[in-house]
Amino acid sequence: MLKPEDNELLTATGPDTPMGALFRQYWIPALLAEELPEDDCPPVRVKLLGERLLAFRDSQGRYGLIDEFCAHRGVSLWFGRNEESGIRCPYHGWKFDYTGQCVAIPSEPYEKESNLCSKIKLTGYPLIKLGDVLWTYMGDPSSQPELPEYEWVRVPPEQTFTSKRWQESNWLQALEGGIDSSHVSWLHSDGLKNDPLFKGAQGNKYNLADRKPFFEVVESDGGLFIGVRRNAEEGHYYWRITPWVMPGFTQVPPRGDHPVHGHFWVPIDDENCWVFTFDYHPVRPLSSDEVQAMKDGHGVHNEYVPGTYRPLQNKDNDYMMDREAQQRGDTYSGVKGIAMQDASLQESMGPIVDRSKEKLVSTDTGIIMARQKLKKAALALRDEGTTPPGVDPSHHKVRSAAVVLPTDQAFLEGAGEALTVQPGVPQASV
Ligand code: FES
Ligand SMILES: [Fe+2]
Questions:
Q1: Residues paired with residue 218 on neighbouring β-strands, in sequence order
Q2: Does the beta carbon of 75 lie inside 6 Å of ligand 1?
Q3: Contact 391, 144 (CB under 8 A)
Q4: pLDDT tens digits for range 371-405
Q5: Which DSSP symbol is given to 345?
Q6: Each residue of 294-345: pLDDT tens digit?
Q7: For residue 71, which atom of ligand 1 is closest to its CA?
Q8: Residue 6: exposed, middle, or buried by beta-carbon count in 10 A (0-12, 13-18, 19+)?
């Protein structure tokens, strides 16, 4: 349970809020690289942390993320002409470069004499490509951190795949699904048996057999390791360990030799978020069958309304809920696909769930600790200027793991180095 003021603190990420300031300490995914496929291609509207921005790629291949609206009289630059190293407003021809600097005011007779142009600059944020993702940093330029080191964007391109989807809820209730491992044995029970990117792993049978998992959560440099224990063979436990790196990175524990998947949850505004969803393999290329399955919406990916990043199953069509499939047991909830099973239920709570009415239990331990860490970090930043966990790129070098350990061994000790990125070493997986 959260007091209403704490719920507000954790869910509001606009420019003048404590969580908004926290998010502005980090590099965060802004859009997929595929959205700006070539120099001078059409610009893309991007809303992040409540700010309306425009992403474009100029004639020299430089990426820019600038205020969506023209400094002159507020026209959306999405209508602009992306040409000759800048975006030109179609109303009176003012032009802005990839940093947001005004570089031409051709409509003004005395522009040269007054040097007006050099005094006008739109808000502009850095935008860089790492992996399949364009990342931005929306904070104070003087404290811009080193680039992210998440393994999924650092392995060779043939070993990684990223998609994104729009989720119609606040970012926190989406993130909370990512650190709540207990729902998997229920909501996703069909996926464990049938999904091409999940099925066949030895670990699945422990997941399905023991539906009362025990949670043990340990702090890490960047966030948490959420250990979830289920019964395995006599004298052993099956542990699934999920790292959360602040603010929005979670990685699902692996299954067999399947690629490892995970998410980065990013606020669009207080009632919507982007879910960047990845799959990668630490030591081998993804097979063409695996990539095809991801593109077809299997695993933790989804299908789309054509030409958009909105899921094909969405709240306007009740997520194509199939009551007969639910009754037959083909799916547990009646909704098809792991991603949309999660999204349907998280959106069903309303855009910002009222956490003062919750009844939290032991399987919510990860969620409780994550909220505490977020609150503590946001207040320490506001009151003392303390840099939060997860900004330092060394904090990103974590892995999820699935291991079987003797019952008397702590998961942190038993999993050991498997929870750290080790180049050339496969994931620890059952
Ligand atoms: S509104 Fe953009 S140039 Fe006038
Ligand atoms: Fe889920």
A1: 225
A2: yes
A3: no
A4: 999 999 999 999 999 999 999 999 999 999 999 99
A5: H
A6: 999 999 999 999 999 999 999 999 999 999 999 999 999 999 999 999 999 9
A7: 2
A8: middle
